[in-house]
User: What shape does this take?
Amino acid sequence: MPILNQIKTDFQQALKRRQTLKVATLRMLMAALNDERSALYGSQDKQLADEQTVVIIRRETKKRREAIALYNQGKRPELAAKEAQEIKFLEQYLPAQMPESEVTKITQRVIAQLGAQGPAVFGKVMGVVMGQLNGQADGKQVAETVKRSLNTTNFK
Assistant: This one.
């Protein structure tokens, strides 16, 4: 079942169960998906592919993580908790994340293939690693792994 259909089904179920926060979160997500679809395809009756849907869900999740940091900084834990709950609703539509050990293996393999030396090639290594991971790992986690690997790799 496409992700968008699953979101719509879950939205209907949340409406019936009167889960107000979940309804609001999924309604916002469907609006973001619809906006993206309209921007890409205009008035055509095309649907977003699952890959495009995942990108939008990640973007919405990232917005909430940033909001949590701001709410915590502003000493508003109740709002941060609400955003955290919304993240839980959104993450159930994302593909499973790759374990950090696997990300490290891929990163080290890319560094060896590119013959990368030092932190100056960070961007190049990041681009290749993110391309190989295909959205199965958080960019922040990958960046930390690449930095750590570039700093600890024995250079000749």
